Amino acid sequence: MTTNTRSVAAELEYFIDASGAVAAITQPQFASVLAEAAGGLRWTVVTADNSGVAVPEEQQPTGSDAFDSLRGDPDAVPELEADPLRPVGIMFTSGTTSKPKAVVHTHGNVLWAAKINPTNIDFTPQDTYLCYLPFFHVNTQGWAMWTVLGAGGTVVLQPRFSASRFWDVIAAHEVTHVSLIPFVFKAIGGDPIPEHTVRVGVFGLIMPMLDDWLGMRVMAAYGMTELVGHCIRSTPNETYPDMAMGRVAPGYEWMVVNHEAGRPAEVGEMGELWIRGVRGISVFLEYLDNPEANAKMFTEDGWCRTGDVVRLEENGHIFYCDRDKDALKVGGENVSAREVEDVCRTVPGIDDIAVVAKSHEMLDMVPVAFVIRNEMAEPEEQMAVAIIEACRAALSDFKVPRAVYFLEEFPTAELGKIAKKDLRDLADSYDPV
Predict the structure, then answer these.
(1) Which single residue of 44, 249, 256, 299 has CA 20 to 30 Å from 320?
(2) Which backbone phi and psi does 421 adopt, to 5 degrees?
(3) CA distance linking residue 269 with residue 244, whole number of Å
């Protein structure tokens, strides 16, 4: 199980308890926060350095085993009967609607991705994939690493993204494939694009202008942690309208569902994207110990409800519209507004609260909180500080609201629900944060 390096102790404790983890491998720079969250861990192993960087004195761990203690006699390991449905790992979702859910991937999922992904993105044994996105996301772990393992190519794994070294690393290792997200475009967009070796960039939409700008073939791919691989992708043998998502990949089926009409969407209509594959092979096996979440994800006949809203157009082309879930995308990280709101509510004096996205020049969006106070509330300035401090203690830094705004009442939509779109517009009318 891989976890977010920006997680605080409370989040790590949740990961440990929810997964049943009994041991941990970490770096010295994270050892203290892990110790604070140890929970049911029996032992911890710490590497000798921080991604190749020497360990400062204040980070020297105590009470942990060295990484070399993991080495032993391979013949002493008990043999297991091959079983493609045996779990190979857990990857927590980014928590778009609530606390993160434990997605169980199987050996069959890895074998599926290793077989299918290389064809989807034209990756061969002679190619090299540069991985700079987090390893606790399916993009690097599933789309990149499993692809490379399946094709027998090469992976270049960076500790973190670096805009200043982006093209230098590509040149040094003759990189042919990269994953692209909007954050990367903003980071490298200020300088001219040099000559390079990249053949394919994997992105979410069909955008020919990116090909011309970046000097590579940008291939569209859509998926999510639960869907293992590129279940929708573009191919060089077809043409697509600008901003389309591509077509369903081999081994998957897709359907667009108009929930209001209670039927599949027709041309020109929006609906929720449903994907169907084989559980434990082309889609994940289950959410660990979470029957309620499994029932919400899977229909009785095996469809996965993605929560993504798309628009169906002529000739079967689909266009991404939005999520029907209450999610924010902060610099590539999904954030659950509900999770942040629940932490904020631990501060006395809140009558109601709504966390929404505010536009941000570099990160695309950041969370901000709108609050209605009650008679028990402290003055606004003190309350804003208390809310942000409570979030810093319980949440990763990218989940912490950048600002707190106070209102007398919230705008409402149908059925009296908070009109978060109006709150987003209001947040964007305020000064940048």
Answers:
(1) 299
(2) -60, -40
(3) 15
Q: Are residues 316 and 407 in the same domain?
A: no
Count of structural domains, the chain: 3
Longest dimension (CA), the chain: 69
- Specify whether 246 is located in the same domain as 109: yes
pTM of the entire predicted model? 0.81
* Percent of the chain scoring above 70 in pLDDT: 96
Q: Which of 97, 133, 4 is nearest to 328 (CA)?
A: 97
pLDDT tens readout for residues 98-149: 678 999 999 999 999 999 999 999 999 999 999 999 888 899 999 999 999 9
To 10 degrees, the CA torsion angle through 381, 386, 392, 393? Answer: 170
Residue bearing tokens 């590509």: 170
Looking at the fold, whether 272 and 163 belong to one and the same domain comes out as yes
At residue 99, the pLDDT reads 78
* 349: exposed, middle or buried (Cβ count in 10 Å: 0-12, 13-18, 19+): middle
Structure tokens at 304: 């996965």
Sheet (strand 253-258) strand order: 263-264, 253-258, 270-276, 303-312, 318-323
Name the token pair of 13.
């404790």
